[in-house]
Amino acid sequence: MEHESNPQLELAFNFLQYTNQNVFLTGKAGTGKTTFLQDLKLKSPKRMVVVAPTGVAAINAGGVTIHSFFQMSFGPHVPYEPEKSGSINHEDFKRFSREKVNIIRSLDLLVIDEISMVRADLLDGIDEVLRRYKNRYKPFGGVQLLMIGDLQQLAPVVKDEDWSVLKNYYDTCFFFSSRALNKSKFIGIELKHIFRQSDQHFIDLLNKVRLNQLDEEALRELNKRHIPNFHPGEKEGYIVLTTHNYQSKNINDSKLNQVEAKSHLFLAEVNGEFPDYSYPTDPELELKVGAQVMFIKNDPEKRFFNGKIGKITGIGGGVIEIKCPGDDQPIVVGKMDWENCRYILDEKTQEIKEEVIGTFKQYPLKLAWAITIHKSQGLTFERAIIDARESFAHGQVYVALSRCKSLEGLVLSTRIGEFSIKNDTTVVKFTDNVERNQPGPADLEASRKEYVLELLLDLLDFKPVLCQINYLLKMWSEHFTVMLGNLESGLKNITPSLQTEMIDVALKFEPQLRKIIAGAPDPRESLQLQERIRKASEYFSGQFESLILQPLSELSFETDNKTVRKSFKDAFEKLKKETEIKRACLELCKGGFDITAYLETRSKSAIEVLEKAVARKEETHSFSHYPDFYSKLKRWRQRKADTLNVEVARILPQKTLSAIADQLPATRAELKTIKGMGGARMQEFGRDLLLLVIEYRKEKGLEIPFDAEKNAEKAGLDTKATSYDLFINGKSIEEVAAERQMTISTIERHLTYFVGTGELELDRVVAPEESKVIMRYIEEHQSDSITDIYNALGSRYSFSQIRFVMKYLEATRENV
């Protein structure tokens, strides 16, 4: 694309390239908006994603649909107030994959094509997703928007029942009523040069229709093209533009039936994921020699373009021959491919790439005696017949008229009345404001400087780290009763130095940066600015490492409460994400500041942090005197919980576990002094815990009381031994439970111990044919989860039977 020949296109490209301004790119039909997008995708260094409101629009733009990428419902989306809410309400959003989160976190530019069809609430939904994974304090998470479309063309579809909900939040359904958009700055650039039409008289008439300024003289001029009962010759290649699908289908079916030639049915080849709402043409395409057809794809060899009309002159040998008016030779075409893509991250480069997930292969044709105005958007016709009597949507007449290259190629089957020109006054007001406030070179330069300043202030902004620390401290104060670890004390030690040595110092840099940037013709080339950034980065990088990163690496926390643990892990990972991104950017800028390198580093470090968070394994905890023994106790507790099918806290509370790890009690008396080791737990687990402590003391060369091992064997066995004696003397498990006034499951647990010691034969508690089935499953699947085994065997065996067999196998393996 020659930007030099089109100043608006050059201006739009520069705003997207060198600033973070949101851009609304508009213009009359045929001004090259689609071509601009294709050019931008090839040339821009920014990490971008292209979305569109419909499947066909997404395929044509080379992107994906808004709903699929952002995973939003099709119903009305009630906006929320991010500044007032503590967190985003995610009910409308599905869980995103790790790769999707990575893509969003690393995104610089979001392109929304056909913005005229995007509802305000949908744009606010996009804002919520971007805030969720980027910067929650900035509109659209700080991602730059490029919104492409013509508001005088097709409008959003909003049902009456949806609008009854949305009207309480929005003035109009159009995208410019979005709350998020109105909180952000955006510029409007209107493309003026029209590529489709060259006749200025026709261009002026179209402009009056577009702006709802159709006076009597202009209306009379257009209606001169009304030719009653017009029947074009077969060779002239006229297409009828209708307002409804049924009209165009009836015309095409009727015309095809009139053609006296053999009918050919061509089936599309659909592979992978390619939803039917995105099909560019009929999957079952019926054609005949003599049928009028339209090309629906641009030819790489420039023989045809999307919207070119011709007549089929031959079918056979896997190709179709089409003769178009004005062409000397017929065009021979075979089946062509359309690709449905998704966005992925390249494993090596971490760049956002398009991956083909499905293809649609069919002849790039459709019957073209008629087409709906809606489906004609983006097409160009040499000759067209327009019937606007039933024009039902905003901008439809303008779309239909503007498909034509010339006034002479246009025929009206009915006169255009003023009632047919449906233009929304709020749209006219908005577009008029865009037209009157076009940015110029001075605005571009101011935005370029503002962008450099914004990125540098972002580099030296350490307040997000402090905010996340304060959030973690607030969480700790709310849940301190169930928390263990040094997280609170460590964060409190970090906070003062973060404020005085980093945040306060950075604030002193800001006036210097503003002054240098304001006085520099091009801040990127300023030697003074580059020197200041290098020195600042060296200072803050050193401080960040010693005051923040190193202390953070020594912090840890633990809790048995699953919900609280997840909240803390998420918040702590977010803090680490903030610090890792900041570290990478400071390290880069020690060698100077470059916008492209800075954006790339910031994006890729966000991805890497997420991967580290997912891959991070359990760490040794520093809040115990003997952290390795604490970890060993945790593993023992988890195995017990799995065997007994209970929560880990039911085995031992976290603080009891921590106290045992700190005090290393080696006798029954010492163990009983620890809070939480009451009679039932002592009987159930006292022996195991004491033996673990004694074994650890031996490994570390610590003192062991006399006869500790012998006494440990007796710990907690009294009640088990009583149950065992009653059982082997002939009483059933039910009778033992009744006599001892205990539950059956308690007696079964007592007997499980003796199965493990070999004193009680497995056959006494589990029938041999049943134990063989359970053993076979455990050995084949190497499973140690009693719940998984129970579910897999179809509940035919009880938890107790499975527990007996598992204990037997455990003892057998230990004795090998």
Roughly how many Å apart are the termini? 77 Å
Give the proportion of residues in helices.
Answer: 40-55%
What characterizes the major β-sheet? 6 strands, parallel
Number of helical elements? 31
Largest beta sheet: strand ordering: 3-2-4-5-1-6
Overall shape: it is globular
The overall pLDDT, averaged over residues, is 84
- DSSP strand tally: 22
Percentage of β-strand residues:
5-15%
Radius of gyration: 37 Å
By helix and strand content, what is the structural category?
alpha/beta
The low-pLDDT segments are 83-93, 613-620
Verbal overview:
- It is built from 31 helices and 22 strands.
- The chain is of the alpha/beta class and 816 residues long.
- The strands form 6 sheets. Strands 3-2-4-5-1-6 form a 6-stranded parallel sheet.
- A hairpin with a 2-residue loop joins β12 and β13 (319-323).
- The longest helix is centred in the middle third of the chain and has 33 residues, at 487-519.
- The model is unreliable at 83-93 and 613-620 (pLDDT under 50).
Task: Set down the secondary structure blueprint.
Elements: H1 7-18, E1 22-27, H2 33-43, E2 48-52, H3 55-61, E3 64-65, H4 66-70, H5 98-105, E4 109-112, H6 120-133, E5 144-148, H7 160-166, H8 179-182, E6 186-191, H9 200-210, H10 216-223, E7 239-242, H11 245-258, E8 263-267, E9 269-272, E10 284-288, E11 292-295, E12 309-316, E13 319-323, E14 331-333, E15 336-345, E16 352-362, E17 365-367, E18 370-372, E19 384-386, H12 396-402, E20 410-412, H13 425-436, H14 441-459, H15 463-479, E21 484-485, H16 487-519, H17 527-553, E22 557-558, H18 562-589, H19 595-615, H20 627-644, H21 648-651, H22 654-663, H23 668-672, H24 679-700, H25 708-714, H26 718-728, H27 733-740, H28 744-757, H29 768-781, H30 786-792, H31 799-815
Parallel strand pairs: 1-5, 1-6, 2-3, 2-4, 4-5, 7-18, 7-19, 19-20
Antiparallel strand pairs: 8-10, 9-16, 11-12, 11-17, 12-13, 13-14, 15-16, 21-22
Helix pairs in contact: 1-14, 5-19, 14-16, 15-16, 15-18, 16-17, 17-18, 18-19, 20-22, 24-25, 26-28, 27-28, 28-31, 29-31, 30-31
